[in-house]
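Incident log, structure service

09:12 report received: a user says their structure output differs between two submissions of the same chain.
09:20 pulled the input from the user's history:
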Amino acid sequence: MTSAELVRKARTRHGLNQASLARRCRTSQTHISRIERGEVSPSVETLQRILRTLGERLELGAVPAPRGNESDAEVRADMELSPAEHLLQAAELSFALTTIAGSPQR
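09:34 re-ran on a clean worker, output below:
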């Protein structure tokens, strides 16, 4: 869920319009609107303040991301590459993908 969705859903759950929420948060309706439209990315502190004003609490967490099919040894080996080696790998991958993208589809 994006911060825009989080603020909008919390505000509507409490039956407030943007102007009312803005007054409670001591900010402008324009600022709340820009957050809800995703035009600005509020800091965690700003999100906490908005939600606290609504009597809610922001909870953040981390979960392991899905990994590709690389083994731990392959990941460790990649971490030991020099910047020049990383650049060479990136160039080779770019060439391969450009070649695939340019080949006629069957």
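09:41 both user submissions now match this output. Likely a transient worker issue. Closing.
09:42 reviewer note: The mean pLDDT is 90. The chain has two domains: 3-53, 74-102.
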